[in-house]
Amino acid sequence: MALTKVTSAVLNDDAVSYDKLGARFTEKQDIATTSGTINLDASSYAIFELTGTLTTVTLNIQNMKKGQAIDILLSGTLSSAVLTLADDFTTSSINKVGSNDLDTSATNLIQVLCVDDTDSDAILTWAVATYTTDTSA
Amino acid sequence: MKAIQIDGAIKRYTTIPKAWGNVIGGFDLLSSTDWEAAGFYDVVAPDYDSATQKLGDLEWDADSSTFTYPVINKTWTQTVAELKESKIASLKSIYNRKLSETDWYIIRAQEGIAAPQDVIDARAALRTECGTKEAEINALTTKKAVASYSLPNLY
Q1: CB distance B23–A94 less than 8 Å?
Q2: Which residue, A130, A7, A1, A112, is CA-closest to A62?
Q3: pLDDT tens digits, one per residue of A38-73
Q4: What's the DSSP call for residue B27?
Q5: Which of B15, B22, B23 has the highest number of chain A CBs within 10 A, making it the mutation to test binding with A?
Q6: Staple partner for B26: which of A9, A82, A112, B40, CB 3.0–4.6 Å?
Q7: What phi-psi label fits residue B96: left (phi over 0), alpha (psi between -120 and 50 degrees) or beta?
Q8: Which domains does chain A have, with CATH numbers?
Q9: Spatial CB neighbours of B29, under 8 Å, sequence gap ≥ 6
Q10: CB-CB neighbors (< 8 A) of B22 in chain A
Q11: Whether A96 contacts chain B with CB within 8 A
Q12: Which pLDDT band holds residue B29 (cuts at 50, 70, 90)?
């Protein structure tokens, strides 16, 4: 009988290295698109960086799994940006964490956590904060 | 000013928020059509006579698709005579203050330096004018008429 699954007992502690993790946990996608609907595929990337001068953009988060968190870096110009969060669940709530608002005069990091991936009642939470590149450390 | 109705309560916004719902930034840059789709509509203050009317609580007007205030006629607990008395007291206070600007001429005249004739004439005219207006107030017959009687601005 072919061995089709690896049981927990076969794996040593600390045996799963970073290289063995799936792309959804390790990969970064650079996005130059600046308008329209931009699909952020969380099954392929953990980090998304939007670099251009954004206009009216819908960030459509796809394939999120419960417990997964993704980071969205907005490193371009946001002064005239209209940003909307969306997802590919049939029904979902997209809830804001904290009171920080997007700062369109700065670079921003949006972190999105999937609290529930039930297609009919999914919950995503997001928080945003500004960041600056600090090379002095 | 815009307002939105949420769970039966109307909330006013002096400026459109930058984020609303799933729009996490730039909501204030959208068009009026987009704001209305989200529930934000103009707040319209109707014209009204503040002497005899007041504005009620903000409410939704489906006909004009705006939030507006109902105009409510004021009621007074005082009688017509009491309102007249109060109005005339205010009237006399205004003229008294105006006359007081030249009182020093009259005081000085008692010490031997005559007040200028134009000052004396102006003071007499003020008294006549005050008396005329007092008579006008006394001739009024309704609370609304007394309340809406405009007092002069002599400043």
Answers
A1: no
A2: A112
A3: 999 999 999 999 999 999 999 999 999 999 999 999
A4: G
A5: B22
A6: A82
A7: alpha
A8: 23-131 (2.60.120.640)
A9: A80, A81, A82
A10: 84-86, 94
A11: yes
A12: very high
Max CA separation in chain A (angstroms): 61
Contact, B90 vs B151, CB < 8 A?
yes
Chain A, 61 to 90: residues with Cβ < 8 Å from chain B are: 78, 80-86
Q: Tokens 């945003």 map to which residue?
A: A128
In tens, the pLDDT along B90-138 reads 999 999 999 999 999 999 999 999 999 999 999 999 999 999 999 999 9
Interior angle at CA B55, CA B52 and CA B58, nearest 5:
170
Task: Flag if A85 and B27 touch (Cβ within 8 Å).
Answer: no
A94 at B interface, C-beta within 8 A:
yes
Encode pLDDT of A110-129 as tens digits: 999 999 999 999 999 999 99
Contact B25 A102 (CB under 8 A): yes
pLDDT tens sequence across A65-107 = 999 999 999 999 999 999 999 999 999 999 999 988 999 999 9
Neighbours of B95 (CB within 10 A): 20
The helix, strand and coil proportions of chain B, stated in percent and rounded to the nearest 5, come to 45, 20, 40
